[in-house]
Amino acid sequence: MLNYNHVAETLKCLISLKKCMVDDLLLPVYSVDGDNYEIGYQIGKKFKTQIADVLGKNKRLKSLKESEKKNSRLQKLVEYGKRCFSRYMQEIRGVAEGSGSSLTDILLRNFYYDYPREGCTTVIFKESDRIILAHNEDNSKDNLNNCYLLKIHPEDGTPFISLCYAGMIPGNSLAFNVYGIVISNDAMLTPDIRIGCPRHLAHRWGLEAKNMRDAIERVLFKERASGGSINIASQKGKKAVNIETTSLKHCITEIGDRHLHANHHISPELGYLKEDIPILKSSISRQAVGDRLLSKVREKTPQAALDIMSSLENTPYSILRTDERVGSITLFTALFDVDYYRGVTLKVYEPKPNMRVEDAFLELTLDDLKN
After folding, report:
1. pTM here?
2. Minimal CA–CA distance to 344: which of 353, 336, 332, 355?
3. Which of 106, 113, 151, 288 has its CA 20 to 30 A from that of 47?
4. 163, 149 Cβ separation under 8 angstroms
5. Closest Cα to residue 10, out of 2, 360, 46, 284?
6. What pLDDT is stored for residue 279 in this prediction?
């Protein structure tokens, strides 16, 4: 005879274990509010250990510090940042002081997207009242165990939930806000990189957009120093777009059915730019494999999106990046279900082949921004 009390206790243990994994190992969730400096300070203080760890072993940061000695651009980026987005510069200063870190290190950590780099893959399915957005968050191995999800309620701004890297303020990764705006970023090399406002600050501004038009205008901030690929979905607007940018140019593609983007320009307007930058073997491979898998999708379901995100075809240059010898690895896979009637749901997965929808170790919705 089935012992229902025993089953209930077993379920409680499993739920507790799952929560423990989220809190202590995989992806901590931390709520923070206040003005921008206070937000940064609280984040820095809470994740001091993770910040120290990643600053100590991040090879990219070390190389940027060396290049700064020969040809400094950081101070000019800082000057633009203070002029354009002083409150987010205060947020960065708060992270440095809260964690007891060097402000220079934290600034380079936040602005290193304004130096050449690449990573991440995103797939989008569009239906009349529903958008599925799946995203592989790729980065260097030293970011493992050094990421967290932030639930942020600015004193004077829009509440949002964002994945964040140790030492950085939100804005460079995946997020959604209380207005049902979902954003993910795919880094790309910028052939016309210039001195200007760090794009990370403009993308941080984008997290507080109230609608699709507002979000587009924010991420296309005219004085940006570099570019990338930005994916935006709007629950209330029933709309999804991909925006390819450089420091001076951009192309907006509205998604009517399905779309996949890796880390080079693919739009008709800007696709030629990939001829002006070094060949990105991983990005080109992932785009080719992803486009082929995308064309075979019959039903645009969350599982179909995860099937693409977990593909190991053409390893080591596969969509699911597992070989650190070729640079970035996939740290997390995120799945956004943006439904006009049911709201926004974010599920986060530990990357692995054959991911299933039910395998998510963390789930958050718009209701979590009310708590």
Report:
1. 0.91
2. 336
3. 113
4. yes
5. 2
6. 58
